[in-house]
Each structure stands twice: as C-alpha cells, then as structure tokens.
Amino acid sequence: MRAALRENPDIYHAHDLDGLLCAFPAALLRRKILIYDSHELWSDIYPFANLRGIRWLLPLLERLLIWRVRSGLTVNRSLAKYLSRKYGKKFISLHNVSTYGKEKKPSLSLRKKFPQKKIILHLGAADEGRGMEQMIGAAKLLPPSFVLVFIGGGKTEEPAKILTQKLGL
Question: Do 12 and 48 share a structural domain?
Fold first, then answer.
C-alpha cells in the first residue's frame, strides 16, 4: 500500500482482492483510474490459511472497494459476465495466450524429458491453498510410470521442492 501511495501512475491495476486493497487508497486519494484484475472468484474461495477466521468479511470488503473500480479484467467470458452482474461494473475477459510470432520460444518438451511416462501437469501459482503438498504426497503413491510436473512459481515453491526431495521424488 505504501508503494502504491509513493508512486503516481495514471492507472492502478490491482490483481485480486489483496491487490485491490493496496491500490484502492492510492487511486482514491490521487483520483486515478483503478482497474480490478480478478483471476477467479477470489473473495469467495480465499485460499490462504492466515485469514480463515474472517473469511466471511472478504466478499463484503470486495463489494465495498469495487465502487471505485472503473472496470475489471478476468480470465474468461462466463466469469466476466458473472462479475459484471454481481458488481454492476464492466468486466472483460483477457486470455493468457501469447501471440504467434517469429521469435524463438524456449522449448520445454515434457514428452522428450519423460519418455514412456504418464504426465500429470499442474499449471499455476505455487501458493498456499493450492494443494501442492497433498499432490506431492499423493505422487509418492503413483506407479513409476507416472510423473507429476509443476509449471509456475510462487511463495510455496521452495517448501514444495524440499518436500519433493524429502520424499525422494
């Protein structure tokens, strides 16, 4: 929040409710445009353990802060339609799809890296509440013909690597 207040951008782009909470005061005080990037129904499925006791407050907080939002972004049309109806703000869908170009893209061929394996791929943030520890624990029970691959980083990435090593996976 201090960083948002220290800067003076033309537009504040807040990711999820925690980002909205940080950008809201600065956008309000500086009278700047505020965009809300809601990747999921964040206030309804808050995945982090540290606020479990006040989880009921999150939808109310989101509703309170969203009045200052000019418009929103989300991951697909159905969620954009739902959020637009829920909050009376325009939400558009913006897909995370790169444009095709001539630039050389890094090659990650899981089939080459794990030939003759059944690949289970988890794409997404390595954050609390994503079930990574449970998936890693369950991977210990898989037959050797399976491999579990995580693509994406985050604050639980290192503990997940440590758990993987500890379990000999």
Answer: yes
